[in-house]
Amino acid sequence: MRSLADVIVVGNGALGLSVAVEIARRAPELKVSVIGPAERARAASVAAGAMLNCFGEVTTYTGRHPVSAARFAVAREALDLWPQWLAALEEDVGGANFRAVRASWSEGTFVIMSSSSGRIAGENFAAMCAAAEEHGEPHELVAPEEVAGLSPRLGHRPLRVLHLRREGAVDGRAMVAALEQAARERRVELVPATVRALLRPSGGAVSGVELQDGRTVSAGAVVLAAGVASGALAGQVLPPGAVPPMLHGTGLAVTVKRANTGPRGPHVIRTPNRAGTCGLHVVPLAGEDEQYIGATNVITFDPAPGVYLGLAQTMMRQASEQVDEALAVSYVHRWMIGTRPIPLDCYPLIGACSIPGLLFATGTYRDGFHSSPAIARHLAALLLQDTAAEKDTPFTHFAPERMPIQTMSVPEAVDDTARHAADTMHDQGTRMPWWLDSTPLEEWARARIRTFYESLEDPVALPPEVVDPQFLDPTAIETRSVDLLRRYLRAARAHHGT
Ligand SMILES: Cc1cc2nc3c(=O)[nH]c(=O)nc-3n(C[C@H](O)[C@H](O)[C@H](O)COP(=O)(O)OP(=O)(O)OC[C@H]3O[C@@H](n4cnc5c(N)ncnc54)[C@H](O)[C@@H]3O)c2cc1C
Prior knowledge:
alpha+beta
């Protein structure tokens, strides 16, 4: 059976749905279809916080390189867009259908710099304060006692707390449901199915997709927004090495119901991004006694079978130590595992590629929920070719066909990764004897990281969090991940000619 659409969006997460809704708003005459399985197994969007953080995500890398600055520019654009994005969605679905999102919406994020934070988190906290100052973002440093819901254990009390007034969170699951409803209201067709293949007859333009059950859907344009699955789908039509591989950033989050331990905090309380992972965060949900605790992050080439128990244990211990000790006696309501789509260089894949009719809206790593309104606007403008101004935007840096973006040299990457590795060990509970600082840990990690880079023949500098977890084991040098990486780099150099 064959059906027709003008635009097919492959993937029904926050990105795919936002792009579809935005296209349908701008061009109601087009037939837009979103294809994705109803269960959304391991989708990032339904496991997300979902913090709407721009300055809260700043790290020491943000100001260091034009591409990092471009990502920050997208996040700033999204920060400005959120109030109108929510209002437009509410208008699309009607107030009653938007109640769950409104009830979960919290404004204001408190970023804590705890006495037990690692060095990297401390540096990121300083970078965040400097960025808020530089860009005139409404913020202030507040006394920890003034933050409702912040009640850490002795020994973990915050040294400093930054209040970002405009940043907050929504319930990710309620938001996906509202986006789906908005899509329906805008006459977007929602197809509960999985795409097996992109159709590209005789090597020309992409002309549609084939579904798992054999049906085909034809279209003039296909937007790839299938999260971690996007890499494999793109690989069907683009040559090896054309696009950086999509890695899996598996994360665990948990929602809890409070026992009789007083009210939960009404705002997001989080740490800065930490070595090798995201920030620890506790987010208020719609129910007065409900909270979300997130999240772990382990980046791998292949899908991870699950989440390490040890890491889950650390996350929950740290939430009750650093944010609110009453969390330890709250009741687990729901466990969620989601996979962040992470290109090898950790920058998103956005926009058109060399194959006519194929566009990318993926690879958003840890802030895809927040950035979704800005990405949706850009994709819609690109697809509908309605503005010349869209040509010169921060998004030009994220063209999908590229060598991995390198923001430092390989020796710098070795040093940075060693620092991150030592800090990760500290965050995970390593305690040095009183006569030693963390230098031996860093040296140990540096030796292994150097060996890993040497094994790549002609390496590129990778972000520390990509290298940190999977390559520290010396036996990993001959593992499948390293082999895949070597083969990818060979193909990428041959394809891009560098
Ligand atoms: C634990 C966790 C916490 C996070 N916290 C935050 C946060 O606080 N703030 C923030 O901004 N971001 C956060 N993120 C990141 C954010 O969730 C992602 O960047 C974003 O949601 C990615 O959206 P997506 O639509 O691209 O991918 P996904 O949400 O993964 O959606 C992809 C969809 O495509 C579908 N699909 C897959 N294969 C196919 C196929 N072959 N055919 C059709 N459909 C297919 C999947 O079923 C899925 O529904 C978090 C992520 C995790 C995992």
